[in-house]
Amino acid sequence: MEKIKYYEKLKFYNYVPVNKELKACCISCPDTEKYELELNEQLEEELKNVFQGNILDQIHAKNINADLKRDLQKKMNILSKRTDKAIIELIKRKINDNKNNQTIYNENEDDENTCMTLDLNKNNDAKFGHILHETINKLDNMDESD
């Protein structure tokens, strides 16, 4: 009797013992068909919940206007070059007009008859003139490349 009590604690799921006393401790294998049916039902319910509605509504574009920007980028580059050229041309005209009209003086007496044109002796005007000269050269090179 003591051995039977000891054997009662043992449980065999996948092993079938040869001993008759141990065979009494065997547990039958669980029915997997029931589990498979339950899992398949749960899977079908989840799939129905996921695909409700229009699938295209669930797709979110990262950048909606990316194709438009890509198509217009070439034209925008040309326009930006033309805009830069027009601005430089206006600055050239303004400088030339100021050089031609050197007789225009500032009315303020503290400036002692300073001219409205660029005075390259001053530091700020010299830097501005140098930058302007470089940009004009770059734009001339762009004109030649176009």
Automatic annotation (TrEMBL):
Coiled coil: none annotated. InterPro entries: mRNA_splic_Cwf18-like (IPR013169). One of its GO terms (cellular component) is post-mRNA release spliceosomal complex. It comes from the Eukaryota. Pfam families: cwf18 (PF08315). This is Pre-mRNA-splicing factor CWF18.
